[in-house]
From TrEMBL:
Family: Belongs to the sigma-70 factor family. ECF subfamily.
Lineage start: Bacteria, Pseudomonadati, Pseudomonadota, Alphaproteobacteria, Caulobacterales
Superkingdom assignment: Bacteria
Record organism: Caulobacter segnis
Cross-referenced InterPro entries: RNA_pol_sigma-70-like, RNA_pol_sigma-70_dom, RNA_pol_sigma70_r2, RNA_pol_sigma70_r4_t2, RNA_pol_sigma_r2, RNA_pol_sigma_r3/r4-like, WH-like_DNA-bd_sf
Gene3D superfamilies in the cross-refs: 1.10.1740.10, Winged helix-like DNA-binding domain superfamily/Winged helix DNA-binding domain
Domain (RNA polymerase sigma factor 70 region 4 type) ranges: 105-157
Protein name, entry field: Sigma-70 family RNA polymerase sigma factor
NCBIfam families per the UniProt record, alphabetical: sigma70-ECF (TIGR02937)
Domain RNA polymerase sigma-70 region: 17-79
């Protein structure tokens, strides 16, 4: 990679950081873990810049790195579940928010009930603005598989909302709304 390509790579990678953070938050459901995951993905992308082919889809390439890191971390961490003091403290905060905040929080919690592969596909297509082809490249599956996952995710969300059958995680509604709005702002940037 020549000097000009390296500068272009650096500029493009920096521009993708907000999108990587938003995708990481949608996978993790925890802002701190998501920021760590996004940082790891950026570091891995930078370390692997020699294997990137200039002119190809850097967004898909970096999202694939992030996704693979998420699943690697998840496989490693199945043995240990620690107490998160911050989460424990947040569960004690009273909810005093408006209906719109509650509806947004309901969506966040309902999405967390989707299987990871469906949630991931729906986020890439719906919030990430990826085409089905780009999402398939990021996930590493066929385009038809992505379409199927998105379709099932949408149907499952309808069922979840119709039945009201979703788990409450105890996070204050106002924090969930703020988190989702920040993610949307990053995606729009």
């Amino acid at each position: 990679m020549d000097h000009q390509d390296q500068k272009t790579f650096e500029r493009d990678l920096i521009a993708l950081i907000p999108h990587l953070r938003a995708f990481a938050r949608s996978l993790c459901g925890d802002a701190t873990a998501a920021d760590d995951l996004a940082q790891d993905a950026v570091a891995k992308a930078w370390a692997s810049r020699g294997s990137f082919t200039m002119g190809t889809n850097m967004k898909a390439w970096t999202f694939m790195i992030l996704r693979n890191q998420f699943y690697s971390d998840k496989r490693r961490s199945w043995r240990s579940v620690g107490l998160d003091q911050e989460t424990a403290e947040r569960t004690l905060v009273a909810n005093t928010n408006f209906d719109s905040a509650i509806a947004l929080d309901d969506l966040r919690q309902a999405m967390m009930m989707l299987p990871e592969n469906q949630r991931e596909a729906l986020i890439l297509i719906g919030a990430g603005g990826f085409s089905y082809e780009e999402a398939a490249e990021v996930i590493g599956v066929a385009v038809g598989t992505v379409k199927s996952r998105v379709s099932r995710a949408r149907a499952d969300l309808v069922r979840i909302f119709e039945t009201g059958d979703y788990e409450r995680d105890g996070l204050p509604v106002h924090e969930a709304m703020g988190s989702m709005l920040r993610a949307l702002e990053r995606l729009a940037a």
